[in-house]
User: Which sequence fits this backbone?
């Protein structure tokens, strides 16, 4: 066989193989030109592919940083931190104590219990002592308040007797009309003494308060003075006391009323449910007398 024949046979085999391959491979689909309406869609898809894609982790980082913390959140965080720290310290301390007690000997445990009992007893004694002190202070306060009230009441009573405090209460009014000028100071002084003996607690004569040291005197040219203050007729006595005792004391036979009427004076005695004695005397310190407690 010549070379040409061999070449022809090779060419035929190559063509047969190519034909067989074309039959086995699917036919190529011709590309159809895209429509004009699909151009924007294609362009948008291309733009989306060009934009950078943000992952979930990147979004989480962007949400957490930079931190945006309000004042209230900061305060709550500090409080929670302090609470957690305190709990941690307490737990650690309790753990240490429990560990120490677990490792202690029986004698040590008994000694610790005895110390706790002694401490409890001391605290109870201290509490009882404090309760006793409080009770004593309360009683002292009550006694002091009661003493203060009694002191105020006593001062008021002494002020009435001394004429430094106004007084009011039931009593009588004694009026003496001396048109003849025959009533003398000693007659009015007898009336005051009789009223005091009958229980008079406060006496006022024509605006002058009668006290323990009160004196009466006859004035030149007629009239009477009380503690240096000249008073004019009619002489009006305002007396606080029990009316049932004061009026009979003045009207006894040969008493004040009859004596004044013999001097041609007109005497009137009237009871009253309320007599006001408001004439006051200035408080005067004694020149020589002093309290025995000073």
Assistant:
């Amino acid at each position: 066989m010549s070379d040409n024949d061999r070449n022809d046979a090779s060419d035929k085999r190559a063509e047969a193989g190519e034909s067989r391959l074309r039959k086995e491979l699917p036919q190529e689909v011709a590309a159809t030109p895209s429509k004009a309406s699909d151009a924007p869609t294609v362009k948008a898809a291309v733009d989306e592919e060009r934009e950078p894609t943000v992952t979930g982790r990147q979004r989480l980082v962007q949400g957490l940083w930079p931190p945006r913390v309000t004042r209230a959140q900061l305060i709550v965080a500090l409080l929670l931190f302090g609470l957690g720290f305190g709990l941690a310290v307490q737990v650690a301390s309790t753990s240490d104590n429990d560990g120490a007690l677990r490792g202690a000997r029986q004698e040590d445990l008994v000694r610790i219990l005895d110390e706790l009992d002694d401490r409890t007893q001391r605290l109870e004694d201290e509490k009882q002592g404090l309760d006793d002190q409080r009770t004593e202070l309360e009683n002292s306060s009550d006694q002091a308040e009661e003493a203060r009230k009694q002191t105020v009441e006593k001062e008021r009573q002494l002020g009435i007797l001394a004429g430094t405090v106004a007084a009011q209460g039931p009593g009588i009014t004694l009026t003496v009309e001396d048109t003849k000028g025959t009533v003398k100071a000693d007659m009015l002084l007898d009336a005051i003494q009789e009223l005091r003996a009958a229980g008079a607690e406060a006496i006022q004569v024509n605006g002058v308060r009668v006290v323990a040291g009160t004196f009466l005197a006859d004035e030149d040219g007629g009239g009477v003075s009380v503690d240096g203050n000249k008073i004019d007729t009619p002489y009006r006595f305002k007396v606080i006391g029990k009316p049932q005792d004061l009026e009979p004391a003045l009207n006894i036979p040969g008493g004040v009323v009859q004596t004044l009427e013999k001097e041609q004076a007109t005497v009137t005695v009237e009871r009253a449910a309320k007599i006001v004695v408001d004439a006051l005397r200035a408080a005067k310190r004694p020149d020589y007398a002093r309290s025995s407690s000073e």
